[in-house]
Amino acid sequence: MILADFSKVPKYNNVVIIGSGPAGLSIALHLEKKGISSIVIEAGKSNPDQNSQNFYKGKIVGDNFPDLSICRLRQFGGTTGHWGGNCIELDEYDFESWPINKVDLKKFKKESYKNLNIEGNFFKKKFNQNIDLINYNWSNAKFKEKYFEKIKKSKKITLILNCPFIQFNGENGKVISASVYKDKLKNVEGKYFILAAGGIENSRLLLWSRHKNKTLINKNLPIGNYWMDHPYHKVAEGILFKKNFDDYLTKNNLNKYIDVNCNYSFSFSPNFNFLNELKVLNTSINIGISKNNKTNENQFLKQLKCLAPSIINKYFFDKDDYNNYSFSVNLLSDQKPEYYNRISLGNEKDVNGIPIPVLYWKRSENVRNSSRKIVESLASFLILKNLGRLAAEEFLFNDIKYNHMNGYHHMGGTRMGNNEKYSVVDKNLKVHNTKNLYVSGSSVFVTAGHAHPTLTLTQLAIRLADHLSKLIN
Ligand SMILES: Cc1cc2nc3c(=O)[nH]c(=O)nc-3n(C[C@H](O)[C@H](O)[C@H](O)COP(=O)(O)OP(=O)(O)OC[C@H]3O[C@@H](n4cnc5c(N)ncnc54)[C@H](O)[C@@H]3O)c2cc1C
Q1: pLDDT for the residue 304
Q2: Which CATH class is domain 2-120+138-228+339-362+409-472?
Q3: Are 456 and 105 spatial neighbours (Cβ–Cβ below 8 Å)?
């Protein structure tokens, strides 16, 4: 049911969930299946508006980063209101320093695919000695559209909108209530509390709750630290020799997966040996192929004409312009967790009195070095098999500033782990040393890999709900 006013909020709740994005709703839906009731506290309304987005403002210190008020949505359904829908799993080796393994999520895959409207038909096919062809599943799920009516009718899920959570209250590791703002400050009491407010707010709200309660949350937990995003940047463009490339695909049975006739983009990632031997970061290598680009208009070809006229004469200008493929390469890189990269509380406060978040964020040199190794490997392979040629971006070789974007994938800050010095929540996502406080979302990720996070965070959310259902029943 969806409540219009606060007076109908049950006095006491089994499970209090803060946030109605894919993390929060996946928990409520799984609990419902198990016959367990929950209340979902959502700050936004059913649509985002400027006023609500203003609460998402923050400061950035370090490398340039998108405005914090546009890279997430404060509304029912959370950021799925404008996400890209790309879904892919983390690799097994991304879990190396996690307290759980990839196999621990297996049981929750089916339900996560259902929530996200995907089939889950992921594959990896060897492309060459160093990289594999990989595939994404595309999700059209916007959680608001998908779940609004269902929750309205639900007897087990209570949702209250436009009701920002402010802080947890309690002592000695036990949360007694969550303070929310609905006309004035009010408290919601419960047995278990789950913070699922997104990859920045989880750190911010936990830091604030710790500040307001001296004995609730251990003062030494690294809340906000080891924050990560996926740096994304263009690294090369080039030409593929159509006949040679097509022959290579056919010979290696890859033509079933790469259909260049679609003017399409394809993704690859380094295999485990390449990652280990060359110390490259796990990376999504996105190659956009364009069949119908007039090759003689391509900047790269103009350069190549000066540098290597024999290649040009042999492969291009004596042939039909349309007989080659132009391509560009973009990389979405892993970002190793670093203590410095963090969310902390600023001096300025929002209208609810909560300090705005300050994001300290820097890309490491590792990203540039790793990207260079990947591009060099790709370039050498194209020459070796005579499949084409590429021109790498200058920043890969020289210490110059480079344009980069981000994945809008906010990870870390309340990371999982067994050791309280380096982590905030345990393997069941319970905040260390607390009795009943949990965190859900990509803020619990220990490492980022190159995978878009929502599929994994949805599986982790369902796993948490499953864990709680065993404690409750
Ligand atoms: C432009 C864009 C494209 C993206 N594309 C992809 C993609 O292709 N693939 C992918 O995997 N991921 C993508 N993402 C990331 C994806 O959207 C997030 O991983 C996902 O939405 C996180 O889910 P969540 O439930 O943890 O957080 P959110 O979806 O952010 O939900 C958090 C919820 O908590 C609520 N909330 C916040 N503060 C409070 C408070 N104080 N009180 C109560 N409620 C509160 C919010 O209103 C919101 O409803 C993209 C993100 C952006 C911005």
Answers
A1: 63
A2: alpha beta
A3: yes
